[in-house]
Amino acid sequence: MSIDLEQIKLPSDLIPKDGRFGAGPSKVRDEQLVALARQNRHFLGTSHRQKPVKNEVAKLRAGLSEFFNLPADYEIILGNGGSTLFWDAAVFSIIEENAQFLSFGEFGSKFAASAKAAPHLKNIEIIKSEPGSAPDFLPHAQFDVYATPHNETSTGVMKPVKRVSQQGLFLFDATSAAGGALVEAKDFDCYYFAPQKSFGSEGGLFIALVSPQLVAQIEKIKSQNRFIPPILDLSIALENSRLDQTYNTPSLSTIFLMSEQVEWFNKNGGLSWAAGRSKASSEHLYQWAEKQEYLTPFVQDKNLRSSVIATIDFDESINADLIAKILRNNGIVDVEPYRKLGRNQLRIATFPAIELSDVQTLTAAIDWVVAKTK
Q1: How many CA atoms lie within 13 A of 136 on its CB side?
Q2: Do 102 and 132 contact (CB within 8 A), yes or no?
Q3: pTM of the full predicted structure?
Q4: How do residues 136-176 score in pLDDT, each as one tens digit?
Q5: What structural domains and CATH numbers belong to the chain?
């Protein structure tokens, strides 16, 4: 059947108040932008080594410490480059010799591949599983680091954050999970992420919540005279973070927008409140998919279903790409699947800033579009 996409218009009551459901960059709240505009002349276009910016970094670090209920001896490291850069920084500054990686999607595999290619490391073991599932660590005394995504953004699989051994450092890539899922500091040595997901900001910055044991590891490796490019040297990033600044010039708007989001979270109840909003939205999506004959949640194991990224498979008789195009033409954007996964599905973010009412309107809109295109 030939369908003229321009002729399919959603009724007004099926258009969400905010149509942004992307897995990142994510929805930025109007209140964040208003606050940034208000501070424009005193903040944007000023030196990142001076008080206005350093105060904002200090506010962000303090807000994150409160939000994640960090122990007094945990530290927060900031640096430019995002989580992608942090993978390489960890290869140089955290992994001493041997590490075990879990790989169950695009992003975990990239970190593992970077470590595997590093000539200064010895044994990099990668435990893989098919997209839609997740493997488990196999602890061994030889490993000084264990690394895994908390949430695999490409597939919508969420792996619980927990230690499986008293030996070794546990690193969790929380780029899409942080802020939208419950976590306790005792379960990780490094919980790192970027601002463009739950924190409703822009990319290009990494934030790492680190234990004293991980700080000691950074200092130990630094003392070994290993060559580390300065931009990947986490001892430099740590030194600058303690001064409420970054090693090189950051995006000031990114820091400010994230700080505003963290303040919003904390004023309303902190991590439990933010994670609860994401859980309510994702549960609506999974329940909706299970009730519809033409839909199936991609992640079969309910214990592994993400609270921030829902991946929903469509029956072969329905073209999910077509549904996404029609939605986009009606102002509902970024629900397309991860490109390399190659499935007939939609991927819908449920970050804390996304309203449950908008998710409910979205599902009603999809049902309406499917009925129109059959």
Answers
A1: 6
A2: no
A3: 0.96
A4: 999 999 999 999 999 999 999 999 999 999 999 999 999 99
A5: 5-28+270-373 (3.90.1150.10), 46-267 (3.40.640.10)
